[in-house]
Amino acid sequence: MDVFADLIYGFSVALSPVNLLYLAIGVLVGMVVGVMPGLGASAGIAILLPLTFSMDPTSAIVMLAAIYYGAMFGGTITSVLINTPGESSTVASTFDGYPLAQQGRAGPALVLCAVGSFVAGTIGLILLTVLAPAFARLAQSFGPSETFLVVMIGLLTLVVIAGGKWRYGVISALFGFTLATVGVDLGTGDQRYTFGSPELITGINFIPVAIGLFGIGELLYTLHQGEHTEEGGFIRVSGRGPELWPKREDWSESGGPMARGSLLGFVVGIIPGAGATVASLMSYSLEKPSPKRPRGSARARSQAW
Amino acid sequence: MAKAAFSGAFLAFAYTLLAFGLPMMTESGQIGPGFFPRILGAMLVAVSLYSVIRDIREPADDDTSSDHWGTVGLVTVITIAFVAMLSILGALVAMVLFMFVTLYVLNRQGMIANVVLSILLPVSLYLLFDVWLNTTLPRGVFALFSG
To answer: Which residues 73-132 of chain B have a CB within 8 Å of chain A?
Structure first.
């Protein structure tokens, strides 16, 4: 089995001290890039590509991959801490992560997200290495009707997320659709709702909507609640203390969601058209009925190709 | 009542959506640009109507009273002014002014910290995005700090 011999060789190269150093630097930089709204994983790699020109190619690829992983996680940091998703794929982390942070358990939430991301990424990678040809054939057989059905699955998860009063969820979904119709119609090339403005021809991008709804909305809500008049104290987080690490029952509850999320994320990521966003939302709706905190589910990091 | 107003707002929005002469239904047998907006608009009107009627029938108690509505309104106006000033004053000056005014409104006590923060943060953002990453931020009419 040549595959395994090559894999072992690859590991021996990747785990050399120099490459491990580049890995650490890449993950750190990637996390910083991911925290900034608008700069996602792809934009981060594109911007930081010139950094790698002077490096040995293997180390460059290690660093770029590390930046990608770090950026995917960086979006979760802002989702959990300030209820503002850094990327569309981290929206699901706001549902449970932010309430946890409000209870003072931001540390465990972030640790669980990080571990979940690592577990899902590793499982996805192993499955990809082993099952890639079979899934490639599956992906090739996808036509327009299958893609449409995948999109419909993603939309139907809205029903689960909407919760109690379904009419508000439907109104929100339809409002989202109408925002999406602004711009150029893909079928005919006509402009819709641009009102003669050249800036609106490309439509309304996701990041301004996310920052406006989540970021500025959260800011105004905080003002409305009067939290700006309260005394703020410094948060003390110690690497050894209970503020950072999840408790034992958190780990045992999260094991199932992490495993299920990884598999779901892998399958959805392989399917063309769906991506990390749909995967994380579907995994959230999968875990939602269970009464215990389904935090791990939001980290269904699909290898979204 | 607040929720009824919310739903009603979307009713009005949906009306505008339909009324704006969504260009074409179909042309030469293909789906035209008006196809989906009309469906969406019709569904939005229907659900909004239903929602408004339900909300009026079962009034939910929403306590939206607060002592701080003035501050909320003020910060909203300041944010709108900031966005309007972005292309006139340029990103750097507008950011500094915005941060200073907002911090002055919200945090009277630590004025020194306000000034330091409102200069430090925009300058570092400017250096990061405009100088290092070369993504041009809005320049402004007076073209200060251009280059």
So the answer is: 75-76, 79, 106-107
Q: What is the dihedral of CA B121, A64, A128, A139, to 10 degrees?
A: 80
- Kindly state the helix (H) or strand (E) to which residue A183 belongs, with its residue range: strand A183-184
B12 — pLDDT class (breaks 50, 70, 90) = low
Chain mean pLDDT for chain B: 76
Most distant CA atoms of chain A, gap in Å: 66
Query: How does DSSP assign B83-116, residue by residue?
Result: HHHHHHH-HHHHHHHHHHHHHHHH-SS-HHHHHH
Domain boundaries, chain B: 2-57, 69-132
Min distance B143 CA to chain A CA atoms (Å): 22
Which residue ranges of chain A lie beneath pLDDT 70? 1, 38, 159-163, 230-243, 273-274, 288-305
Asked whether residue B48 carries a pLDDT value surpassing 70, the answer given is yes
Lowest mean pLDDT segment, chosen from A54-68, B5-19, B75-89: B5-19
B23: nearest CB among A171, A190, A229: A190
A96 HSE (CA, 13 A, CB side): 24
- The set of residues, in sequence order, having a beta carbon less than 8 Å from that of A135 and lying 6+ positions away, is A128, A270
**Could you tell me if B51 lies within 8 Å of chain A, comparing CB atoms?**
yes
Q: Which of A171, A175, A188 sits opposite B51 (nearest CB)?
A: A171
Q: What residue spans define the domains of chain A?
A: 83-164+234-299
